[in-house]
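Blinded run. Sample ID left blank on purpose so nobody reads anything into the name before looking at the predicted structure. Input follows.
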Amino acid sequence: MTAPSPVVKGTPRAGLTGATIGFFVGFAAVALFGPTAVRFQQSMHLSAMAVGFLVAMPALSGSLLRIPFSAWVDTTGGRKPFLVLLGLSLAGMIGVAAIVATRYPDRLSPELYPLLLVLGLLCGCGIATFSVGISQVAYWFPQRGQGRALAVYAGFGNLAPGLFSLLMPMAFVSLGLAGSYLAWLVFLALGLVAYALLGRNAWLFQLMAAGEKPDEARVHARALGQELFPAGTTMDTLRISAGTWQTWALVAIYFSTFGGFVALTAWLPTYWTSAFGVTAVTAGILTAVYSLLASLIRILGGVMADRLQQGGSNTSVLALLVMLSGALLMTVAGDFELAVPGEILLAVGMGLCNAAVFKMVPQVVPRAVGGAAGWVGGIGAFGGFVIPPILAFAVRQIGPRGYAIGFIVFVFLALLSLAMTWVLKYSPSPAGYQPPAISSQQADG
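Blinded prediction complete.
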């Protein structure tokens, strides 16, 4: 179809590309301190608990800011929220790079620890781009294609922490710690510019920005193929989604799987070096295997969620059973040979389930996708802040054996999530959701 107005630009594929680039550069902050935690621990004489909070700090802002910023998408589109969050992350990275360049290693005193926590919060703003992009992409695509589109967005965007967990220890060898963070700063700045050039709002928001009234813009956007539309103001979309009990069931599941993914990406470098005495480079490789596998298999999870009958809930059940088996294995893993397959099972289970959850979001709250994505992505991702200190607490209370015992938290989270998925699977669809008239298989030709 032709555009009803010359001001409308972009296509669903272009919208997906821009959002994925923005999320990729912002989400790398998950690995802000994890791969280099041992360097800060040695220079600042930090305890295991202090390290746990340090590596988790970006996840705090990266989770809680998802709620208001995702809801903001429903009123202005994703472009402004994206640029604000990436700008805040860039400011934090400037601070981290400056401290490391001027103080590491001899002058990196414990007194700087609170400042590093604050800068970690700023850097973590980039993590919050996730739910902004989820909403932005969801408005671009019809419901029958959202599973794959959102899985591509999240899958490729989620590659960033794994790649940085792999590259940071290697960069330290050749560039030093200061050079490594400087290179990261340049990468983030270039990524912000790339999103500014490529990021596009869905048609409705472009038309309203050009001066069309909301009702008129909806008609034109629907003619172009847009199916999902926001409910109203930011408070409206948050209120409507918060009043749907299914939203909170999805929050619980996402806390376990995506929050767990963020937590382990930050914690695993410490786990591998401290529990098994491997080198920082080896720990980075093992962490990258986990993070990259969980990210890439998320794409498969989106395809499964699109193609299977009741694909979101059925994919989630399968994924959580895999996650449960991995968590049980990690809990009893006193040997390196058991821990590696346990990590892989956790990656597969969490990655598949992360895709399945966001396939269900538009079905659960079709009139307030942005608000629902904010609650699920925000409070769900809060697990990335909560879980690492719990794992560190197990080490403090039990000693070295606590590195394995701490994984029992994932056993309980997997069981809770299975129960939530079971309830969602056998609950009626909320009013307002209409399944596609044809299946994904038919739509693919």
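Unblinding after everyone has recorded impressions. Residues 12-199+231-427 form a domain with the Growth Hormone; Chain: A; fold (CATH 1.20.1250.20).
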